[in-house]
């Protein structure tokens, strides 16, 4: 065997080990999710003490039972609530973050660095500090049991997204802005026609994060929504699986599986932008 | 006042013409117009609540009656509140175990994926998926089921010949570990940030090192690691803050009470209970400020030591 063949074999063995390790680890990573999906098709008895991923037969009636929830309200209502809250809050968060980010990145106004520093501090502030007084304020103005406390704050922009977009805008050459200015554009026009279309990767990154943070949000709905008719999917799932009552596990897993679909869809459609969005933020100093 | 303002600006020595002053004013007006959504939100949803929270922390307040000022009573009460100390203990343990584990995994997998194989994008997606769905209630509920006495973990252990029948979530010694594993399992977003960092390490550094005969380990220790320290620094601070404020997973996995025997009573969960189960708004506000203090001190320590271990390249021009 000559040296060349030896090297090819070595490279190929390395490759094989790499793929084998990655796939094995990946399977372990995915196992809990696959197990939940598989459980959504099993009978109650089949779930107990069984780690197999293949159900004996596909029990679609779990989905029918799960969807019906308590007969008065179905999961259709919860999905509608979650979708409404998630989409409106995400729209507000992303649009206003972009506008604010443009202000911070491109306009040298007085006090800019002070306010930018304030924004950074709020990034580090635990939500627990504002949780109680926010609740009391929203309680006073009669916003409890409405979606307003969950939606309105997002229209002020989200610190993390603003930071992401400021970093992104700073990498767009200033010459583009200046050229637009010479062509007679004012700042709102430069923002809408020049900068906004160019920061697409960071917008999409923000959309993905916002969508899945809002969709999964539990604490917010737990604090502000008390009427079952207003429940989001996460709140309903939690009530569904109350440890105090006897639990219909296959039905819960069926609705749990459905609850993952919107997030996974958004992720699959946009995932190629995530790494791009992060690479270009230049988090690395 | 106009003169005072211009003192900080670059062409301060020149007296401003009327036009220039007007232009500067217009710049400020449009700047504030653009950041106004954030500014209004910041005042309404951060500054005002923070001031209220500070005030409440020195009061006894149950929402129904007006707050009653009681000085440092809330903070004194903490010192003898065994559940408060328990929640601190649980949270420190959770954060100090799960964050390093998570970062090591994230870094390891990012290193693994930092090569040009066609399948990488697919692998990346699989490894990131648990983080995408991991924050959801569905996963938390499933996790609880997974670690029950008759759950899949025991079934799997039995299948490979390790007899196991304990309820991992029902045992005070192991319950917190189910939360730690859940946190480590979701290393995806740290991994992506590491990956983004790894791709920015200049290729010629490695080429130069290879010519000098540096092996894999040497290249890792002398190039990759120092180049990645700013990213490690960023991830460490973000993840620690996340770790200290964990709530949802603990709430669901522990049945909302920090069961069993308060072994999963994380700080945010106890704070929530005080506020919204017992309506002790003053006490929970005081607890929130202790949390700020803890996070502040930790961040300060990391920042202080960062001069010694975080490596920044001097950037020219930019």
UniProtKB/TrEMBL annotation, chain A:
A UniProt-annotated Pfam family: BPD_transp_1
Family: Belongs to the binding-protein-dependent transport system permease family.
Compartments where located: Cell membrane
Main location group: membrane
Gene Ontology annotations of biological process type: transmembrane transport
GO cellular component: plasma membrane
Membrane topology: Multi-pass membrane protein
Transmembrane parts of this sequence: 16-37, 83-102, 114-138, 150-169, 190-213, 249-270
Classification of source organism: Bacteria, Pseudomonadati, Spirochaetota, Spirochaetia, Spirochaetales
SUPFAM superfamilies listed in its UniProt record: MetI-like
Protein name listed in UniProt: Carbohydrate ABC transporter membrane protein 2, CUT1 family
Record keywords, A-Z: Cell membrane, Membrane, Transmembrane, Transmembrane helix, Transport
Chain ranges of the ABC transmembrane type-1 domain: 79-270
TrEMBL record, chain B:
Location in the cell: Cell membrane
Residue span, ABC transmembrane type-1 domain: 88-302
Principal subcellular localisation of the protein: membrane
Topology of the protein relative to the lipid bilayer: Multi-pass membrane protein
GO BP annotations, alphabetical order: transmembrane transport
Assigned keywords, A-Z: Cell membrane, Membrane, Transmembrane, Transmembrane helix, Transport
Family annotation (InterPro entries): ABC_transporter_permease, MetI-like, MetI-like_sf
Family affiliation: Belongs to the binding-protein-dependent transport system permease family.
Pfam families: BPD_transp_1 (PF00528)
Bilayer-crossing regions: 31-56, 92-113, 125-143, 175-198, 282-303
Gene Ontology annotations for the cellular component aspect, listed alphabetically: plasma membrane
Keyword Membrane part of the UniProt annotation: yes
SUPFAM superfamilies: MalF N-terminal region-like, MetI-like
Gene3D superfamilies the UniProt entry points to: MetI-like
Protein name: Carbohydrate ABC transporter membrane protein 1, CUT1 family
